[in-house]
Amino acid sequence: MLSIQDVLDYCDLDRGEIEAIAEHEHVPMTIAAEISEVLLCTPEGVCQLHVMFLENMRNAFDRGDMLHVQELAEAYQHLQRSHPLPACH
């Protein structure tokens, strides 16, 4: 049986990024990890990941959860560096 760390080691995203996907999609971390790998395969999927983070930040802001907004913003900065939005044609 794989541990969550085994699953995360397989992913191209880090724990904070996978947690944000899990939060957005309301799924366990292992499912979020699988979703991340599928989304990273296409420019459209990368765009979807960026949207997920922005929606999570907006939802946390609307709840007044500024600490979570900051956590998400830090994870989003990492996503932007490692998987920037694709260029528009």
Question: Overview of this structure, please?
Answer:
This protein is mostly helical and 89 residues long. Helices cover 75% and strands 0% of the residues. The chain is built from 5 helices and no strands. α2 crosses α4. The model has no long low-confidence stretch (mean pLDDT 91).
Quick synopsis:
By secondary structure, the protein is an all-alpha fold. Helix content is 75%, strand content 0%. The longest helix has 21 residues, at 43-63.
Beta content comes to: under 5%
Q: Overall pLDDT, averaged?
A: 91
How far apart the termini lie comes to 44 Å
Low-confidence stretches: none
Q: Enumerate how many helices there are, as a single number.
A: 5
Radius of gyration: 13 Å
Q: Structural class of the secondary elements?
A: mainly alpha
**H and E string:** HHHHH
How is the biggest beta sheet arranged?
none
Q: Give a count of the beta strands, DSSP E runs of length 2 or more.
A: 0
Net shape: globular
Helix content: over 70%
Question: How are the secondary structure elements laid out?
Answer:
Blueprint: H1 4-10, H2 15-25, H3 29-39, H4 43-63, H5 66-82
Helix pairs in contact: 2-3, 2-4, 4-5
